[in-house]
Write a structure and sequence with these properties.
There is one protein chain. The protein is mainly α. It has a domain of 144 residues: Up-down Bundle (Ferritin), CATH 1.20.1260. It is 63% helix and 0% strand. The protein is built from 6 helices and no strands. The radius of gyration is 16 Å and the shape is globular. InterPro entries: DUF2202, Ferritin-like, Ferritin-like_SF. Keywords: Signal.
Length: 214
């Protein structure tokens, strides 16, 4: 199954299997270790957006400073797909922030902006067409991603609790996709960004869980 189509399939499936995904990955509330290379470029301090993990903030994604490597065609496709997934998360959370008075959506949407910028930097570095370029909020180049966005937006528009559930679905899906994308990856710069995004998604998932239990 193509990566972009799989994103939509996993996300749609996640609507009814969030608990199963969360159990599979057994996410802890403490900060997990970074992925990527050991000491070297890119290992400097990262910043914490206002609010911190408890209120939806996460570890910032530093600039892409690690050396580039080689990507297979499958890995190039996955990088473009991850850009669309980051935009999907950003656009959904922005919509929910406008509908509900929960700071978690506003803060995580801001984080997703940084995440998408990091992925776009990699797309430029590797000469990969950015599928999110010139796409208005809520609009996507890939039909399957568009359908997933529309479905999740409708679900989250039903109530505040439903929107928080969508947030957990999106972050659980991101974790699954990033783990898969890291499999067999050797390019240091992409490893670093994916590792940071994985850590961020774990923080986001924990934050949505905390807000759901209030």
């Amino acid at each position: 199954m193509k990566t972009r189509t799989r994103i939509a399939a996993i996300t749609a499936a996640g609507i009814v299997t969030v608990g199963a995904f969360a159990g599979t990955f057994a996410l802890a509330n403490s900060s997990p270790p970074m992925f990527g290379p050991g000491p070297g470029p890119g290992n400097g301090p990262v910043t914490m957006p206002r609010g911190g993990p408890r209120d939806g903030g996460c570890l910032g994604v530093p600039g892409v400073v690690d050396p580039s490597g080689t990507l297979t065609e499958t890995q190039r496709t996955a990088l473009a797909a991850n850009a669309e997934e980051e935009k999907l998360a950003h656009d959904l959370y922005t919509e929910f922030a406008n509908r509900y008075e929960l700071q978690v959506f506003d803060r995580i949407a801001a984080s997703e902006t940084t995440h998408l910028e990091a992925v776009r930097t990699l797309l430029t570095r590797y000469g990969i067409t950015d599928p999110t370029a010139n796409q208005a909020p809520g609009h996507f180049a890939t039909p399957a991603v568009q359908a997933t966005y529309d479905q999740l937006l409708a679900q989250g528009s039903a109530s505040q609790d439903a929107a928080l559930q969508v947030g957990k679905t999106v972050e659980t899906t991101d974790i699954s996709l990033l783990r898969e994308s890291l499999n067999g990856l050797t390019a240091p710069d992409v490893q670093r960004v994916y590792g940071n995004l994985l850590t961020a998604s774990q923080h986001h998932l924990a934050a949505f869980g905390r807000w759901s239990n209030r």
